[in-house]
Amino acid sequence: MKNITFLVTMTTFLAILSTTAASWGSWQPIKNLNDEHIKEIAGFAVQAYDEQASGRRPPLKLLKVESGQFEGVAGGKDYLLTLTAVVPREGSRVNLYETIVYENVSNQKKLLSFKKLL
Ligand SMILES: *[C@@H]1O[C@H](CO)[C@@H](O)[C@H](O)[C@H]1NC(C)=O
Question: What residue range is the signal peptide (predicted)?
């Protein structure tokens, strides 16, 4: 009886462990792109990218998050988002960008990359 209890406990433990581990080191799709938290991360990415330019070009205007993935990393998560944004000075042209934002467990964000796709 004791062995069965142990086995059940271990199986449950391993099941929980594998669920947690699933988001570690591999990108998982973000199902709800309209989630406020995802919008917040996209907004942060555009803002941080604009801050890097420090006035050398007009700020981008975030249009929409087109797709997204996340990955569990040490101390938080990495978010890989593809988004569209308007470039005001270039005749309101819409560009596609890919960005990676790290967010730690205290919701502190850091822009890791931001590049134009087309
Ligand atoms: C999250 O990042 C901020 C800013 O870098 C840092 O001050 C804070 O300690 C971090 N929190 C954790 C739990 O790592």
Answer: 1-22
pTM: 0.79
CA 77–ligand 1 middle distance (angstroms): 13
Show the domain range for 32.
26-116
106 C-alpha to center of ligand 1: Å? 6
Does 106 map to a domain?
yes
Asked if residue 14 is part of any domain, the answer here is no
| Total domains in the fold of the chain | 1
- What is the full per-residue pLDDT of the chain (118 aa) written as tens digits? 566 666 666 555 555 555 555 567 799 999 999 999 999 999 999 999 999 998 888 899 999 999 999 999 999 999 999 999 998 877 889 999 999 999 999 999 999 999 999 7
Cα–Cα separations (whole angstroms), residue 78 to 16, 70, 71, 74, 89: 21, 6, 5, 9, 31
Q: In terms of Cα–Cα distance, which of 35, 34, 60, 66 is closest to 46?
A: 60
19: in domain: no
- The domain that holds 33 is classified in CATH as 3.10.450.10
